[in-house]
């Protein structure tokens, strides 16, 4: 178990295949995703085509979520998977439309290491 969502981390090939479902060839490019682009590129159909890979990656308790995909859930999957590769999905409002962009996560948080022994 990798974390609360995943059994294992996707391989680079699986990650690229997943991004291609959203018509993203390079994650570092300036990519924008909208509800309309998800419908135009038939993202949900492409995600169903790679359902076997998603089932391998996610924990069994998430299978119901994965097996009944819609536009909103596909964005949730994208957000969860890109987080494993240190990216984040940012939502921008333009008028009454939402535009999602993938950005590198520039977290400068201090990591706390567990199980350190401090002797005085």
Q: Which helices and strands, and how do they pair?
A:
Blueprint: H1 12-21, E1 32-33, H2 35-40, H3 43-49, H4 51-57, H5 63-67, H6 71-84, E2 87-94, E3 97-104
Antiparallel strand pairs: 1-3, 2-3
Task: From the structure above, extract its key features.
6 helices, single chain, alpha+beta, 120 residues
Give a structural overview.
The structure is a single chain. By secondary structure, this protein is an alpha+beta fold. It has one domain. The protein is 41% helix and 15% strand. The chain is built from 6 helices and 3 strands; from the N terminus they run H-E-H-H-H-H-H-E-E. It has a 3-stranded antiparallel beta sheet with strand order 1-3-2. The longest helix has 14 residues, at 71-84. It is globular and about 60 Å long. The N and C termini lie far apart (36 Å).
Q: Give the biggest sheet.
A: 3 strands, antiparallel
Q: What sort of overall outline do the alpha carbons produce when their principal axes are compared?
A: globular
Helix content: 40-55%
Write down the domain tally: 1
The oligomerization state is single chain
Percent strand: 15-25%
How many helices?
A: 6
> What strand line-up does the widest sheet have?
1-3-2
Order of helices and strands: HEHHHHHEE
Classification by helices and strands = alpha+beta
What value does the Rg take, in angstroms? 17 Å
Beta strand count: 3
Can you tell me the residue ranges where pLDDT is under 50 for at least 5 consecutive residues? none
The mean pLDDT is: 89
- Give the N-terminus to C-terminus distance in angstroms: 36 Å
